[in-house]
Amino acid sequence: MSLLVDDLKVYYRTLAGDVHALDGATFSLADGEIMGLAGESGCGKSTLGNSLIRFDARMRYVGGHVTIDGTELPVWDTDAMNAFRFKTVSIVPQYAMSALNPTRKIGDLIDDLLRAHGMNPKKERPELRRRLELVGLDPAVLGLFPMELSGGMKQRTVMVISTLLNPSVLIADEITSALDVSTQKAVGETLVGFRDRGFVTSLIVITHDLSILYQIADTILIMYAGHLAEKASNETIISSPRHPYTKALISSLPEVGIRYAEKRLTGIPGTPPGLLHPPAGCRFHDRCPLASAKCLEKPPFVEVDDGHFVACWEET
Amino acid sequence: MTSSGRVVEPPDLVSVLEPPVEPDAKHMSGFRETLHFALRNRKLVFGLSVTLAMLLLALIGPLIASHPPLEYGGKLSWAPTTKDGYWFGTTLLGQDVFSQFVTGLRLLFVVGALGGGIAAAIGMIVGFTAGYRGGLVDDILNMITNVVLVIPTFALLLVIAAYLQVRGIVTEAVFIGLTSWPWAARALRAQTFSLVSRDFVDMARMSGRGSRQIIFKEIAPNMSSYLFMMFILLFGGAVLIAATLDFIGLGPSGTISLGMMMQLSVQSAALQLHLWWWFVPPGLAIMVVVGSLYVMNVGLDEVFNPKLREL
Amino acid sequence: MPLLKIDNVSKVYKVGAFGGKELLAVRDVSFEVKPGEVTSLIGESGSGKSTIGKMILRLSPITRGTITLDGVDVSALKGRGLKAYYRTTQGVFQDPFSSYNPIFKADRVFNLIRSSYFSGMDTPTWQSKVAASLEAVALDPVQVLNKFPHQLSGGQLQRLLIARALLLDIEFLVADEIISMLDASTRIDVLNLLGELKERGLGIIFITHDLSLGNYISEKTVILRRGCIVEMGATEKVFGNPQHPYTKMLLASVPQLHSKWEELSPELQAQIAELAGGPEAQQQYAAADGKALPPEGETAELVEVETDHYVAAV
User: Fold this and answer.
1) Burial letters C17-30, b for 16+ CB under 10 A, else e
2) CA A237, CA A219: separation in Å to the nearest integer?
3) Of B6, B10, B311, the CB nearest to A180
4) Count of the separate structural domains present in chain B
5) Residues of A with CB below 8 A from C211's CB?
6) What pTM value is reported for the model?
7) Which range in B26-30, B192-196, C172-176 is most confidently predicted, on average pLDDT?
8) Residue of B3, B8, B19 lying closest to A95 (CB–CB)
9) d(Cα C231, Cα C212) in Å, to the nearest integer?
10) How far apart are CA C236 and CA C241, in angstroms?
11) Residue B203 is part of which domain span?
């Protein structure tokens, strides 16, 4: 098992109280698995991804365990996690490509990063150059400033940096959202290439775009309002989902070929619940066509089929 | 627009992990939320209290002083305070230092408010117009700003002083206001630039609003905290400039200000004669007022800017 | 029947240290928008689609060419003429939270319209007008009136902006990436709303980078690249029978839910890789134009390949 997450709970501190952003996530990631983490805004996917590597000032660890390759990650302890960051678990943060310091060359940036982790930049250079070439970048980008690179090039540079030390788990947070369609494809394929070449063992790809996940992910985990809704292989999620939310989500996605005049798609009426005082039980029940009195009790996330997990009373 | 990745505004990274909108949460209105933080900020409370205390002293001081400020003839006191009502002692000419002190304090607030106010008004007009219009208007206003910035105000004042035999506090304040607005105009222009590109300005234009309405109804209110803080800085700046001008003898005629007190005390060799009660109170007062204003400003910055707050 | 005609419109930006160099953001673009139809402007970043939208809304001056509404040149309007133009054409933008002044309540956008265009109207009539508008966009007045923007969701805010535009009885609406910042489950509802408005006679210019959305909602499609039109015409024809290499490339790179990228032909794969910045393309990044773009200063003529289907000559 590469990654095991057991009942992870992370809340946000606010003046009005705690926001239950992530309320009990349990799943596992096998070696070599690319798992897509999808959901709409406020579902907790970014919280889950980021809590595996770094807690910011407002995140509060409430409970749960994270284990990588048998070792427990002390996610609640920022200093203790220093030993694991970048080497065991690494992240390509959201908007990373916009966060590159515009006044420094890419090469200098990378050298700083390596030194900060106790490595020798000169020793790592050859490997760095090799990897840049493998993703289709000319190693000369090391001498360029961020604004001289295109969005796709910046994104791929950031991805190379994040995987330089061959982490076990790489978390990619919305790395294709700000890119053009043609670049998305290149970046998505680069990500898969990392796994195929062994630069990373497993990947968690966080995005709201299910169609990209269908292309590059092995499994997809759908989240809703801080809870896990469904996890299955990409084919299953797209063609035979079982959770009512997943079903509604898939049927609201327009595809090239579907036209308004011929087939009217529908969204999901209502909005996700506020997480300051979350409702008891299943959080989707007020928008769910199958809701019943049983749904006031939180459904467990259980395996209904080989590798297919669902959290819904109707399906178990 | 230089590369083919879509240009995405890098948001503040703090809000990326922002918890979602809470539809049912009790929400404090913007003003009450600000007030909540304001009352808890130590710097703001401290700075404001000290400034208000000095203001109070300036308002009631002249009413309770025993002697008019410029009246000569009191018995010279060689002690910091006497029982005849000379609470801060006398000057070398027998004048009541306390009375002069509180009169000067009043003038300090007048010149700060008036001078700072004029500078703020001009700075706002120039800054907003340059920032909103851009193009040729911006270039011209920029040129004017730069010219005023590099005018040697001291030399100019000497020339003016040579022509105006009698100068009041209002003249001094107006002069300060007319020469200290450039940096405010620059800062406001920059702020306006950043707001003008926001979509709600386009929305206002598409609602048939003219430029002036947009500047004063859409943009300025968004900067209200910034404008407030800017006024405080201009106030403090005006006080310091006035004190400097007074100290070198270019103060208002017919009255006494804190800077003038210090000037006269130096001229009368008060330091050598150990008449410290003559020059220490005015100097200390200026320092205290301006210092507490700046401390208040730092506190206000924390109140208005949520990112600087600690939770 | 009102007609919005964009005729050989170009937009030039002056860039460089002293404004010496020119950047041609939009090059000789011509197309028409009819009421009761959705015309999609599809392109990647840098294609000029948003610039065209802003020019139609008179938020950005036109460098060359004309935009006419029923024969009246819109690009020259000022003052009262411009105000009257905004009664016929309005816009909604991408970021719902940026479109509202954060210190005021959200429904202030209605009050701005009222004071500009309906100042004589008495309050009860105005309120019923607002209620009718909100109903047309499926919003509950109780839930959205008297609230600050941050108390409402992105979907509600976008609908509120559409309601605002409807208050004016407009003929044309420019929708610039209006749903790209919304969640998937609310996107389709706002899109369906545009469909309803179209059926009621509104002419909509739908600007997007997402081909599936364009395909879903529009009658006419205009594909833009680096400021030029490469292909345009009826949506089924452009998507069903793409002629230009760029269009084919775009259609091939869109991630689909029922077919995989591996199933693409090798030539298309290579073309996509090159456009995304493969090794050779990188060296000439600044001039990475590929075979399909005409040299600077020239525009490719549009050739009619079938009725209502035009392609730029390669």
Assistant:
1) eeeeeeebbbbbbb
2) 8
3) B6
4) 1
5) 181, 256
6) 0.80
7) C172-176
8) B8
9) 17
10) 8
11) 39-60+95-308
From chain B, the residues in CB contact with C25 under 8 A are: 1
In chain B, what residues touch A154 (CB-CB under 8 Å)?
Answer: 5
Q: Does A15 touch chain B (CB under 8 A)?
A: yes
The structure tokens listed for B60 are: 């009631």
Indicate yes or no: CB of B4 within 8 angstroms of CB of C45.
yes
Number of residues that this document lists for chain A: 316
B16 touches chain A (CB under 8 A): yes
Locate tokens 């001008």: which residue?
A: B245
Q: In what order do the strands lie in the sheet with A3-14?
A: A17-29, A3-14, A59-68, A71-72
If one counts every other C-beta atom within 10 angstroms of the C-beta of residue A138, the result is 17
- In CATH terms, the fold of domain C4-242 is Rossmann fold (3.40.50)
Q: Complex ipTM, two decimals?
A: 0.84
Any domain includes B5: no
A174-183, B67-76, C263-272: segment of lowest average pLDDT: C263-272
Tell me the torsion sign for CA atoms A145, A148, A150, A156.
Answer: negative
Instruction: For chain A, report the end-to-end CA distance as a whole number of angstroms.
Output: 26
User: Which one of C86, C98, C103 has the shortest CB-CB distance to B30?
Assistant: C103
Q: Using CB atoms, which chains have 3+ pairs under 8 A with A? A: B, C
Q: For chain B, how big is the Rg over CA atoms in Å?
A: 24
How far apart are the C-alpha atoms of C260 and C197, rounded to whole Å?
35
Pick among B12, B22, B33 to test the A interface (most A CBs inside 10 A): B22
Q: Which residues on C lie below 8 Å from A150 (Cβ)?
A: 277, 285
**What is the CATH number for B230?**
1.10.3720.10
Structural domain includes residue B167 = yes
pLDDT tens per residue across span A232-257: 999 999 999 999 999 999 988 888 77
Q: How far is A215 from chain C (nearest CA, A)?
A: 6
* Residue B197 domain flag: yes
> Closest Cα to residue B115, out of B224, B245, B212?
B245
How much is the average pLDDT of C151-161? 89
Per-window interface: C 95-124 vs B, CB < 8 A: 95, 98-104, 109, 112-113, 116-117
How far lies B213's CA from each of A123, B141, B195, B201, in Å?
62, 20, 15, 11
Q: How many CB atoms lie within 10 A of CB B170?
A: 13
Do the Cβ atoms of B5 and A58 come within 8 Å? no
Helices and strands in chain B, H and E counts: 14, 0
Partner-chain contact B17 A50, CB within 8 Å? yes
Chosen from A46, A106, A176, A185 to mutate, greatest number of chain C CBs within 10 A: A185
Q: How much of chain B is in helix, strand and coil states, percent to nearest 5? A: 70, 0, 30
pLDDT in tens, B199-255: 999 999 999 888 888 988 888 888 888 898 899 999 999 999 999 889 988 888 888
Per CB-CB distance under 8 Å, the chain C contacts of A153 are 277, 282
